[in-house]
């Protein structure tokens, strides 16, 4: 395996959780709900996936547990913000705090236990293509799911009736409600989809990225995905590109150090965040496109008139 | 945002500490502050094992509440102060970054005794303690030089503080004593605890052909990468053999229990004094994990070096040593003094990295 392939493989591993969690948050935000609890849902997914894999002996059961944990945990957020109309920002932050605490407690028995790695699925024929074959067609299930999710979410939002309704709710919940669209029910589903994606991203962390459980192992990646959604101006393919940009910069700065380029490591570590700011400046420059893409009801509570 | 989460966790832990104090007012409270989780499998866990040893030894006479995941920074000061107010008689703050916070709180609570781990600022009621990790790292360097097929190793480093720089230099000194052409690559991850990033750094190094890894970060992720990629690595702070049964050559293991026990004895006897303790292999505060996955002659060499360091025959920083740029630092036979080591901000010759500005 050449160094080029090796770098590509690590970039994919580092980018996949960012792409998946950001896609989930994108759907949630497109429905008009701002869930800042991605970090908390992700870490819950990570601990549940690790525990599930340990107990059952199968990483695939782990994946299911991770998705379920993320979705169930987001249900708490949905109930508080959609049914009880609690403040979305505060509830989202609380969700992160709660997730970090609860996962630490649940995971205590699993610390420093050797993990179970999710195996590769080799796609016949395609995997024999030089370079690309090894990198793209000898991957784990979660990587394939991440690609399917990008395509699926993109199709759903812009090509399906249900997606049109979801975007309509995000842009104006009052009008959508007047048209007879089920605002609260759709938002519940969107939030849970976001939670399931964050849970899957967490499962990737504890089953693929570093197959182990360590407290706080999400290490701020949930926050990066929130920035990524804005960075991508609520577009699935841009989330994909942005996720890989972030992953690539993180990995390349480590390789740059290993190659001995004399650039300060602190500067290199800062690059992904600097890139976010630059892109935010570029996309905000054209105010009209930003406004078109931003869901107009984002973060606003919906209380149906009785 | 994560910071707030940790503070919240810390406050909750403090509340638990206070409520248990109410039940047992006759017990002497000896308190601990950890930067990570008490089960991190690395640095904080090593301190917690020390705490458990003390608790077992003194039984009903003391109680040992602890705060974990306390971030280094302003929150640390609040956490330590809360412990001081809750009736702790002796407080161990176990991470370098707690230094200034401990100094401030110690000044406010002259009747409470403080001990700061791995720092250099002390006071009438503030002692410092540290372990001569560099003694162990010298042995790691020697083993690396014998084990590596391409005359080099990679060092996954956290932050460019003297403790870390000293470790890098000692490793290089050990390696050079065996193989003068040995090159040590350093990769800075700017974190103590991020399994993903530590693993990425390890992978980057392995992909570039490194076959021996060592780390000064807190998780077992680099060891795990070494195991998967079939190369060798050294454990840090705790024996990491579970993460790398085929990869781990040995580990430097922090065993703080003996020191903690000595200090708690002094507290109960009323003989506690502010001291600056810096023990090493000889005193048992630092131990080497079993030498495994290496040929017998390498193992023998490692054991001999360990014995020589204990007897004082070998000191990792004995001249002639040049600084990285070739300027002389120590003359032949001259040994580095502790003050220079504790403030070390330069590389020795042979380290293949540029030290980040501090």
From TrEMBL, chain A:
This chain belongs to the protein called Simple sugar transport system permease protein
Matching Pfam families: BPD_transp_2
Q: What is its main location?
A: membrane
Q: Does the keyword Cell membrane apply?
A: yes
Q: Write out the transmembrane intervals.
A: 31-53, 60-86, 92-111, 141-158, 188-207, 213-232, 239-259, 265-283
**What are the top taxonomic ranks of the organism?**
Bacteria, Pseudomonadati, Pseudomonadota, Alphaproteobacteria, Hyphomicrobiales
What organism is recorded for this protein?
A: Rhizobium leguminosarum
Name the GO cellular-component terms: plasma membrane
Q: Recite the UniProt keywords alphabetically.
A: Cell membrane, Membrane, Sugar transport, Transmembrane, Transmembrane helix, Transport
How does the protein's chain sit in the membrane according to the entry?
Multi-pass membrane protein
Q: Which PANTHER family match?
A: ABC TRANSPORTER PERMEASE PROTEIN, SUGAR ABC TRANSPORTER INTEGRAL MEMBRANE PROTEIN-RELATED
Q: Does the keyword Transferase apply?
A: no
TrEMBL record, chain B:
The family database entries (InterPro entries) matched by this protein are listed as: ABC-Purine-Binding (IPR052910), PnrA-like (IPR003760)
Q: Does the keyword Signal apply?
A: yes
Recorded GO CC terms: plasma membrane
All copies of domain ABC transporter substrate-binding protein PnrA-like, residue ranges? 27-313
- The residues forming the signal peptide are 1-24
Keyword Signal on this protein?
yes
| Key words of the record | Signal
Q: Which Pfam families match?
A: Bmp
Put simply, this protein is called BMP family ABC transporter substrate-binding protein
Recall the taxonomic lineage recorded for the source organism: Bacteria, Pseudomonadati, Pseudomonadota, Alphaproteobacteria, Hyphomicrobiales
